[in-house]
Amino acid sequence: MAYLEQYNWDDIAPIPQNDGGENAVAPIAYSDEYRIAMEYLRAVMRVNEFSDRALKLTEDVIYMNAAHYTVWQYRTRILFALDKDLCQELIWVEGVGRRFTKNYQIWNHREVIIEKLGDPSRELPFIESMLELDSKNYHVWSYRQWLVRRFDLWATEVPFTDMMLELDVRNNSAWNHRFFAIFGRAEAVLSSVVDDEIEFTKSAIFTAPQNPSAWNYLLGVLKKSGRPLSDLEQFCLTLSDLTKTFPATSSSTTTSHEEDILSARAIEVLAEIYAERNDFPRATHAWTLLAERYDCVRENYWNFKKRSAVSRLAGCA
Amino acid sequence: MPAQTALAQEQAREQTRSLFAHQRHARFFNFHIRMLPVQYTTTDTVRLAFVFFCIAALDTLGCLPYDDSEEKEDRESYGLPKVSEEQCAAWRDWIYDTCLLPSRDAFRCSPALSTGPSADTDTPNIYDPGHAAGTYFALATLLILRDDFSRIDRPAMMRFLSSCQRADGSFATGVLLGSNEHFGERDLRFGYCAAAARWIIGGDEIPGAAEFDLEAARRYIVAECVAYDGGIGMGGFTESHGGLSYCGVGTLELLSRGKTAPREAVAEAMGEEGLQELVRWCLMHQTTVADEREAFTDEEESESEDEDEDEDGLSLAGFNGRFNKPSDTCYSFWVGGTLAMLPSRTHSTTSALTLSDVRSNAAFLLQKTQNTLLGGFAKCPGRSVQPDALHAFFGIAALALSADVAREEVGVEEMKRDEVWCGLLGLKGFDGALCIPADAVRYAEGLRRGWREGYV
């Protein structure tokens, strides 16, 4: 309750919450501290007071409820009206960010402050410390994208994702950021860069053959750069050699050749490659393996793929 | 087979043990609608969301006096405590008295924002603007409570909702009064809320009323927010996400609702390839514990003894919201609800939810996140995780969607003999796009018809 201790509020009549009295629906069992702070906040917001005491009050309210949807706008207006030290504000927000890692508003606020300061130098270290707390924090990664675009900080980004993926090759946020870092710029991406990305991702898949993030990235890079899926055929066969189980014998789908199958995702890509070249027996074999053995939770989907292929074939005939 | 044995077997089947703690959930929400514990303080300014969760859950469970659903009889035998008509009227009044702005064109999202000492002396305040999500939650709740919306200025509400749209097609939370300053994050949640609110008040059919830039709204979702993996994120190049995919697809669906066959508009906006990629993206988020065990390092893993089957051999598989994240109750709804809005392919009348494993999903929720003692659902498995009202509502909503698929695919008779399904027969049919029971949507269609004919 620093705002009450440090400042005089005698001239302010707190505004209690109109909660419909006894009819209140889903009322929250507020602490007295929060209830009273909100009563003062309503009173100063009502007259749009820009003062030190109001600034302190927003601080206390934010510490109890950082998700308040207009307290941040109010705080920003006070900061700008009283010409407050914005670097000080950034340091304060860092504490709030660490305390409320799931909060949306903090990042909006930070954008406004950085925009006004025009200096992003504190930001990358702060972001990295936030990612140490939660390496998949959606708001933090989105904020990093804004920052990179706004201040043209592209040079650091691919190496940064190298580091993040080294720590956790399954971090989907880091893969997404890598896609942004490579394809998010205005200029065209060199063919050699695409080659490097494909190789980089293939080796990541070898370390974790089922990792959906790396597979999606690989397929995304291929599509974005207009390369055919069939480029991956050999790679997929290395991970899941379907040639040994095709044509299927009665036992081959269920028992033998387990050691040749490292990745359900490789089987899926092979099925697509076969279907694209109208090799439906092979495609169907791959989908059957997925449905019955290697990806049973999606059995309905793989059977649907089979049915779709059959009806497509019938449609062509 | 002797007739007696067959009869005994029949009786045994009829007493299939239900895994769904229907009564406990009813009690959970009856408790929360009277009092949210102190830890809900961080949700204070989105209080209407929690009012909605409680009332929508009670309705889905069949505890409200309004029940026009086909499955009504299944529920009668549950002996559930019914909320009275008077109570529902008091809830309606409370929403209007504490959250409708004096301009009658929008709702705030919580009584906590109002700076007037009472509704009568309420004067506009810069920091107490209309809130797109508050407006949706209020309208959806009022719809469940069979309100007629006569207290709202519908054309003015369309002006408010349209004012939330930015030039790029996206929607803000609202506009700060006395300025043109949009506030709130740039993501898809508020577009969804605006699209749902527009449909509920028949805003697409009010002659001369303000209207969204529909093309810009669709373009923003399809051209900006679809990620390289086929899912939808909060903007260009952001990570695809279950909740945002739901909001994006829900917006596409609701902006065209009633104008095309169900699911046709979404398929058309996404294109066949985009549709197939999004369907795949959603299905790939259904995860077994084995997937999760591979994905997480030791310190992240919640319960190492978890298996893909429980002790009775039930197969379990929930949904996560991003790749390589753990399953979470609410994504059973966000991703499941997205699938429910998508056709399995263009022009198909079958929802893509039928392509997932709805039974393993339901079993995951029932066996891993349902709290059979306190009622409600927790965010994730684990003995130390308490149920909360948000996850409890989305758990029930996801189960209702799953049960709708099972009614079609498995059949009611078969469901009665299945421990996963039998208890879920008591849930109301559910509308995945508006996120409310289907009979409330039918009521809304009646209101829309009335307005349409009234204007002619």
Automatic annotation (TrEMBL), chain A:
<keyword id="KW-0677">Repeat</keyword>
<keyword id="KW-0637">Prenyltransferase</keyword>
<keyword id="KW-0460">Magnesium</keyword>
<dbReference type="Pfam" id="PF01239">
    <property type="entry name" value="PPTA"/>
</dbReference>
<protein>
    <recommendedName>
        <fullName>Protein farnesyltransferase/geranylgeranyltransferase type-1 subunit alpha</fullName>
        <ecNumber>2.5.1.58</ecNumber>
        <ecNumber>2.5.1.59</ecNumber>
    </recommendedName>
</protein>
<dbReference type="InterPro" id="IPR002088">
    <property type="entry name" value="Prenyl_trans_a"/>
</dbReference>
<comment type="similarity">
    <text>Belongs to the protein prenyltransferase subunit alpha family.</text>
</comment>
<keyword id="KW-0808">Transferase</keyword>
TrEMBL record, chain B:
<protein>
    <submittedName>
        <fullName>Terpenoid cyclases/protein prenyltransferase alpha-alpha toroid</fullName>
    </submittedName>
</protein>
<dbReference type="InterPro" id="IPR008930">
    <property type="entry name" value="Terpenoid_cyclase/PrenylTrfase"/>
</dbReference>
<dbReference type="Pfam" id="PF00432">
    <property type="entry name" value="Prenyltrans"/>
</dbReference>
<keyword id="KW-0808">Transferase</keyword>
<keyword id="KW-0637">Prenyltransferase</keyword>
<feature type="domain" description="Prenyltransferase alpha-alpha toroid">
    <location>
        <begin position="20"/>
        <end position="405"/>
    </location>
</feature>
<keyword id="KW-0862">Zinc</keyword>
<comment type="similarity">
    <text>Belongs to the protein prenyltransferase subunit beta family.</text>
</comment>
<feature type="compositionally biased region" description="Acidic residues">
    <location>
        <begin position="297"/>
        <end position="313"/>
    </location>
</feature>
<feature type="region of interest" description="Disordered">
    <location>
        <begin position="292"/>
        <end position="318"/>
    </location>
</feature>
<keyword id="KW-0677">Repeat</keyword>
<dbReference type="InterPro" id="IPR045089">
    <property type="entry name" value="PGGT1B-like"/>
</dbReference>
<keyword id="KW-0479">Metal-binding</keyword>
<dbReference type="InterPro" id="IPR001330">
    <property type="entry name" value="Prenyltrans"/>
</dbReference>
